[in-house]
Each structure stands twice: as structure tokens, then as C-alpha cells.
Amino acid sequence: MNISETIQELRQRFEAELASVENRDAVEKLRVAYLGKRGEVTQLLAGLKSLSGEEKKEFGQKINLLKRDVEGRIAEHIEAVKKAEEERLILGAEQYDVTLPSLHPHTGSYHPITLVQRELEEIFSSMGFTVEDFKEIVTDYECFEALNIPKHHPARDMQDTYYLDNGQLLKTHTSAAQNSIMRKYGAPLRAIFPGRCFRNESTDASHENTFFQMEGIMIDTDISISNLIYFMKTMLSKVFRQDVEVRLRPGFFPFVEPGFELDISCHICGGKGCSTCHGSGWIELCPCGMIHPSVLRAGGIDPEKYTGFAFGLGLTRLAMMRYGIKDIRDLNSGDLRVLSQFTHE
Ligand code: FA5
User: Fold this and answer.
1) What is the CATH number of domain 112-339?
2) What is the DSSP letter of 286?
3) What is the pTM of this model?
């Protein structure tokens, strides 16, 4: 092959290799292969030394032309590759679909007590009960005296109370709203009033110093214990979606007569006995009874004409049984790993 043919072959090979180059690194490699110290064009130029004067002139011009062409083509290609890379970037951004959901969507969840409370509100609303809200700081009259618990009555010891400096107190039970609600609506009356309660007691798996109850009252001309039992059974079978084993035992509360303790079989151990039910197999859930005539009278309702029942459901404990939560303290922990597991079915 003479020098002209070598130059021709080199030019064609360079163009073929350049055509398949797609990024800046590859262009740089090609530049070094042809124009670097030991590059093919550089070596051709070095070979001129051995040629005669005429040949040197003729081929020197041709090789220098090749060199300039190769340099020019490489510079053009670097520009083209740069532009293509920028376009790919822009195109990439344009291809981002803003309507797709994020890879790890974080949705909030309701607290298990909220879920159970809402369920109960639906159940009782469907049975004609209104849902009432009540304050958390109450008077001694509302929490005790209106409920037939005068000052120095031993029943006050049943609930360790947080008193405030101004003589008011943190509601120890939702019964504290009974008097206001009776006065507000009169009889006949069907109402539930869920709320947060506070008691100065030490905590364990089933006792907290801050917990929720849901009070219910029904007052009319002919209300009896049968009505009370019917509403309790309906409520529990709807919440648990099956018949629930309950036991009713006599219970003393100055604001009801007769009074009962309604316990349900512990859903954590299936009634065998565990730390949640303190080994008894039963959970104290919903004390209840027929409203004491003195309480009706204090609420402005004539006990000669009307009778009624009241219950004080342990909402926090119901949430525990409903969702199989072994320790009541988990519910106040604020630990989202625990609390975000529960959903409304
Ligand atoms: C009362 O609070 C009465 N006011 C209930 C009542 C209302 C009786 C109407 C009759 C008529 P007791 O102190 O037992 O009762 O509490 C009622 C329910 O609240 C208990 O059965 C239990 O489920 C829940 N409870 C009470 N103390 C705690 C506590 N420290 N932690 C969690 N739940 C509690």
C-alpha cells in the first residue's frame, strides 16, 4: 500500500469509528488513537522523515490535511455528543409522569380509639341517640354532687381525682356530663357522650391515668332493665361482629339503682387468664344501671314520670379487645409503629 492509499484507508477507518462513538470519553479515546503521541496520524507524519524532498512535500501536505480534518471532525463530534447528552437530560425530565403515585406513599391512620368511637357513634346514631361533646375540666357538682355523691361520701374514693387550684377538677368519668345534658334536652332523651377521663392512679396493662369512656343515657316513660340489656348486647355484637360472652354482676354506683358491672370475656387470652385481664379471663368493660331518682331530679326530670338507664363504657378497653392490644399503655405511647397498624374494616 502506498502512502496515498494509506491516507485514504486511515480517513475511511476514522470516519467509520467516529460514526459509532456516542459519548465524550469515546471521542477522547478516538482522538488519542489518531492524534495522540503514538496516534496513527502522528506516526504517519513522523514517517515523512525517511522520504525524499519531493515526496515529503506531496505527502506532507496530504497528511497535514488529514490531520486537520481529523481534528475538525473530532471537535464537531464533541459538540454533537454534548448537545445529545443535554437533550437526553431535558427529555428525561419531560418524561417524568407527575400523575404517578410516589414510590412510598405515607398515609396517615386513625388512632384505634377514634376508630372504635366512630363505630359506636354510628351504631348508636342508627338507634336514635344523639352524640354529645363535653368539656374535660368540670365542677365538683357535675362530677360528683349531681350524681348523688355528696362531699365526704366514701364513693369519692372510687376515683382518684386530679383537682385544680381553682377548685375544679379533671373529669374522672363521662358521667360528669349527665346533669348538663339532662338539663339541656329534658326527657325523653337518648344520648351518648364519649370523652377523655383522668384519674390519679398507677398504670398497668389495663389501667391508664388518661383513658376514654363513652357514656350513654336513655330516658323515657317506660324504660326498664330489659332495654338496658338489649342495647348493651346490640352494641357489643355490632362492634365485635359476633355474639360476645358477657357477664352481668351487681355493682354499686351512687348514681344508679340497681347498678351492674358488665364484663366481657378477655379477647387477648380467650378467657383463659393473662396479664391484661389480671388472670381472671374477664375485662370490666361497661358498668351500667337504672338512673337513680335523685339524679333525674337534679337534672330537672320528674322521676315519678320517667325512668332511664345509663352506662359508662370503657372505650379504651373496648379498643384493646376489638384490636387485640395487650397493653393499654401502647395506646397512649404515640408510637406510630404500633398505632398505624389499625384500620377500619
Ligand atoms: C365509672 O366511671 C362510672 N361512671 C360508670 C357508670 C356510668 C356506671 C353510668 C353506671 C352508670 P368505673 O370507674 O368502673 O365506672 O369506670 C367505667 C369503665 O371505665 C371501666 O369498666 C373500665 O372499662 C374503664 N376504666 C376505668 N378506669 C380505667 C383506667 N384507669 N384505665 C382504663 N380504663 C378504665
Assistant:
1) 3.30.930.10
2) -
3) 0.72
